[in-house]
Amino acid sequence: MKGKVCLAYSGGLDTSCILRWLLDEGYQVVCFLANVGQEEDWDAVRAKAQKIGASKMVIQDLRCEFIEQLCFRAVMCNAQYEGR
Predict the structure, then answer these.
(1) Taking a C-beta distance cutoff of 8 angstroms, is the pair 68, 43 a contact?
(2) Using an 8 Å Cβ cutoff, are 32 and 8 in contact?
(3) pLDDT-based confidence at 84, cuts 50/70/90?
(4) 38 touches 72 (CB < 8 A)
(5) Coil/strand/helix, residue 70
(6) What is each CA distance from 21 to 4, 14, 42, 43, 70, in whole angstroms?
(7) DSSP string of 2-58?
(8) What DSSP letter does each residue of 39-54 carry, written as one string?
(9) Is 76 helix (H, G, I), strand (E, B) or coil?
(10) Given this model, what pLDDT does residue 34 score?
(11) What is the DSSP-derived secondary structure letter of residue 71?
């Protein structure tokens, strides 16, 4: 084993391919997914990561932190997104 890495994992095609590649390269992979309010089938994401071979899948509820530390600050400074 080359070592342990943490992969920011979404459950989509790209991160699933990266997960498989890291495993094939000899790394032990822990996947991490932040719940910031998106609609996800959390059980399906966890099952997919484990089926591919992740040693662990961590899903953390960061909704409050996302709103308080990012969204509120963006609103207070009149931030724009995509020109709006």
Answers:
(1) no
(2) yes
(3) confident
(4) no
(5) helix
(6) 14, 11, 23, 23, 32
(7) -EEEEEE--SSHHHHHHHHHHHHTTEEEEEEEEESS----HHHHHHHHHHHT-SEEE
(8) ---HHHHHHHHHHHT-
(9) helix
(10) 97
(11) I
Residue with tokens 């992969």: 7
The Cα 60–Cα 79 span in angstroms is 26
What letter represents residue 26's amino acid? G
State which amino acid sits at residue 76.
M
Angle between helix 13-24 and 42-52 (nearest 10): 30
Cα–Cα distance measured from residue 42 to residue 9, given in angstroms and rounded to the nearest whole number: 12
* Token pair listed for 4: 């342990």
40, 9 Cβ separation under 8 angstroms:
no
In tens, the pLDDT along 30-62 reads 999 999 999 999 999 999 999 999 999 999 999
Q: Pull the structure tokens for residue 2.
A: 């080359």
Kindly write down the DSSP assignment for every residue of 58-70, as one continuous string.
Answer: EEEE-HHHHIIII
pTM above 0.70, yes or no: yes
